[in-house]
Amino acid sequence: MSKRLLEMCVQIVEAQASAGVMSTEEIEESLRRIYKVLQELDAVEEVGPGVEPVREVPKKLHPAKSAVLGKGPYESIGENSVVCLECGAQLRQITANHLKSHGMTPREYKKKWGFRLKDSLAAKAVSRSRSAAAKVRGIPENLKAYQERRRKKST
């Protein structure tokens, strides 16, 4: 531990504590945060201006989720799985029941993470298999016929 940084950190926290009432936990947390910031500033000073220090991925972050973060939300939808951007779980489909565990609806999840509301939250393979099954049952043709009958009826 750099003694110079530690001394600066202690002085800053002492000034904060003298300005107002702080609990022991608040003082400890303040010491940790300020020391970390001072270390980052020291690293930037050593490397030179204009270069950002390398920051670690937070330990709490699930590996599957951290691989997707920083990219668009659509990167979470893979060929055989979808990564839940709330918890990092890999699923074949993000269901309303799964999202209840996060206290969200599918609509809220899509808005929060930037999906269009009409987008599916299923793996690409799942979407293709459903599409093929619908075609086998004749749903696209039946839908077109229904829409045509409805259009003729309304005019």
User: Major sheet: order of its strands?
Assistant: 1-2
Share of β-strand residues = under 5%
- Given helix and strand content, the structural type is mainly alpha
The major pleated sheet works out as: 2 strands, antiparallel
Summed over residues and divided by their number, the pLDDT gives a mean of 80
Q: Detail the poorly predicted runs.
A: 53-64
Question: Helical amount among residues, as a percent range?
Answer: 55-70%
- Total strands: 2
- Rough outline: elongated
If helices are DSSP runs of H or I spanning 4 or more residues, what is the number of helices? Answer: 7
User: What gap, in angstroms, lies between the N and C termini?
Assistant: 81 Å
Q: What is the radius of gyration? A: 26 Å
Would you list the SSEs in sequence order as H and E?
HHHEEHHHH
Question: Any chance you could write out the topology, listing elements then pairs?
Answer:
Elements: H1 3-19, H2 24-47, H3 63-68, E1 82-83, E2 90-91, H4 96-100, H5 106-113, H6 124-136, H7 139-154
Antiparallel strand pairs: 1-2
